[in-house]
Amino acid sequence: MNSTGRLAGPRRPASTIVPALAACLLTLAASLTSSRAWAADDPMPRPAELERDVQFWVRVYSQIDTNAGFLHDQSNLGVVYDTLHFAPESPPAERQRLIDQARERYETALRRIAASGDGSLSADDQRIRDLWGAEGTPARLRAAIDDIRFQLGQSDRFRSGLIRSGAWETHIAETLANLGLPAELAVLPHVESSFNPSAYSKVGAAGLWQFMRSTGRRYMRIDGAVDDRLDPFRSTEAAAQLLAYNYRVLGTWPLALTAYNHGTAGVRRAKETLGTDDITRIVRSYSSRTFGFASRNFYVSFLAALEIDRNPEKYFGALQKESEAHFHEVELPAYVSATSLEHALKIDAAKLRALNPSLLPAVWNGAQRVPKAYRLRLPVDGTEWSSQLLAQRLSPGDMFTGQRAPPRYRVQRGDTLAALATRYGVSIESLAELNHLRTSAHLHPGRVLTVPETTSISLAAATSPASVPAPTPQPASTPLAPAASVAAGPKVPALASAATHAPPSATAPPSATVPAPSARPAAPAPASTPLLASRAPALPAEPSASAVEAVAPPSPGGAVSAEVAVRESAEDAAAAAAAEAASAKPHAASAPQPVSAAQAEALGPALGPAADAEQSADPFDYSVAQDGTIRVAAEETLGHYADWLGVTSARLREINHMKFRSPMLIGQRIRLDFSLVTREVFETLRHEYHRELQAAYFAGHRIVGTEIRIARAGDSVWTLSQHRAQVPLWLLQQYNPDLDLTALRTGTQIVMPRVEEVGTGG
């Protein structure tokens, strides 16, 4: 090293310096050009046409708190009629009265201004007229009467979110970077939950990233013991996977973000309807029953959150963010009760619970064990925790090979869901959800149902000798090694043996007005015809009593507690009610808006308006086209369509000019007969079938990433999905929605989801 501190080296001949310098300059120029190109290709564009919308949400997030709100036009966010201020402790009813009075005042003013033409106006009427500028024609002002909307301020909630974000921002940044995703996505929890990891919305979204249960199960463990949506670290990894998937399907980040709120299929439909991926055209021009105020404003509210997050001092002054969370993560070697962990590790239960928010109350009250392979979080206290050390601290009797099984009941002649729900003190919806059934399902004698754990009600009918045969009792799980002392589980009512288990149907029987899809198996397709819509029976046949006896116990991680079932049923009911409300009231201005912080938290943690449609990662459009046709999806058969329509398969073959036994191909157009049921009923049954099919799969599997495969000679989609990736054909179709599965060519790039079993650690 020379005196300047630089490393010394051999002198280079003068003849090599000029070419080398030229090469360096060329490299530098190329680098600068590349940097400019990357900067110009902003992944999160901020179109000038949407700037007024962005500024509206900047004001909502930074200028007014939950004791104030804007009365504004829902279509033109540049028109804010008034800022209403409320007393801090004023009740919601009083606030709503003030809002209604102000709305009536401005409705009257708009009528008066529209009727006046170019006549003279009062100072306040002129102010309102000036808000509209050249757009304020009499016709437009009359239309605006029905579009007055109230938006509660959010600055206090946004500020709290900025402070909370410090605990997880490093992990979020690393997760996004590891997947090559834009760093800007890290601000999405501001819009979704104010960075509140325990946030829970009325329609069932949960956690920092506000995952719906059905979507969350694709990437996380969600069962009776664990809900990873409530873990800010696991849910961050899942959100990154979902966002990457949305981008892969939709092609731009504005659309990928909109799909996070509106669902992948909905945004894909908007893109195809308008023939563009321009976010401005879509939010301004796309018309759909479910594409309402929330969907139109999700991307602009994200841009507003991004603006504030990048300049927090400008909007809130100096802030002290929470410090980054530190802990050890140890993979559990077996199923272990929370009490055993507390005793063996000598860790305070409250501290252990705070470090592991995804463990549900059923774990802490002893009804469920902490699952095997769960990544237990432990405090940093100087101990170098590992799975081996943890196993040493636990006695053999503390460790089990499986989860505690829920109690069972064998259906008797005359039993109904309503009667059993009354007997067990739960709602019909929760009992149906617990068993993957529709609330209108008919119960066949001999079927075994999962029932809630309870000791407070009479079980005489359930425990009578005629009701429950006495099969050889088998424990739901056994200790890993013999032990003199084994941790005792909670008492279970003497219903059907824990070993008797009826596997949930792929779909629930539809309502009585439409025949249920039959269990007839489809003809198996030979390896040379891999593109058939289905190779397996659509619906498992109802098991007989003897068949149920032979079924194995539920798999680890498959059990669902009654507590979770009740909550999930409430989520589904609320989501259905929200969808129905959206259908009945397409204008967001007419939908109820929160008027206080308490109401905002009760309706949901999102800082913007609630979602218009259920978050869904399924990009397939299950609707019927205008010409009465549908596009065949994986796992569908002609028998499905016939059952959902209430007609025969022969009738469908006739109108589609299909020969007997000729297979349907994925992507093929099929004409339907709606003489007995409406399109809406058919679409509902079809969507429910796929939703339940996917729910059954993701109850035991999760997606952990993707990889690209290049099709070789002789490859087919079927062989790729079954022999290489071992994923369902419908999941492969979802990851390649634009790929023609009937014409797979050598060299075609195929996105393959990588899947692991839940609870096995892969």
3D structure, described in words:
By secondary structure, this protein is mainly alpha-helical. It folds into 5 domains: about 65-150, no CATH class; about 155-320 and about 570-605, Lysozyme (Orthogonal Bundle), CATH 1.10.530; about 330-400, no CATH class; about 405-505 and about 540-555, LysM domain (Membrane-bound Lytic Murein Transglycosylase D, Chain A); about 700-755, Roll (Membrane-bound Lytic Murein Transglycosylase D, Chain A), CATH 3.10.350. Helices cover about 40% and strands about 10% of the residues. It has 30 helices and 13 strands. The chain has a 3-stranded antiparallel β-sheet with strand order 2-1-3, covered by helices on one side. The protein has a two-stranded antiparallel sheet with strand order 4-6. Strand 1 and strand 2 form a beta hairpin. The longest helix has 27 residues, at about 15-40. The chain is globular. The relative contact order is 0.10.
Give the class from helix and strand content and strand pairing.
mainly alpha
Question: Could you report the average pLDDT, rounded to the nearest whole number?
Answer: 77
CATH T-level fold name of the largest domain: Lysozyme
Strand content: 5-15%
The first-level CATH class name of the largest domain = Mainly Alpha
Sequence of strands across the biggest β-sheet: 2-1-3
Number of strands: 13
Report the sheet with the most strands, covering strand number, pairing sense and barrel closure: 3 strands, antiparallel
User: Which architecture name of the largest domain does CATH use?
Assistant: Orthogonal Bundle
Question: How far apart lie the N and C ends?
Answer: 51 Å
- Please, how many domains? 5
Considering DSSP H and I runs of 4 or more, what fraction of the residues is helical? 40-55%
Helix segment count?
30
Quaternary:
single chain
The residue ranges in which pLDDT falls below 50 over 5 or more consecutive positions are 1-40, 454-476, 481-532, 534-588
The backbone outline, from C-alpha atoms, is globular
Computed CA radius of gyration, to the nearest angstrom: 30 Å
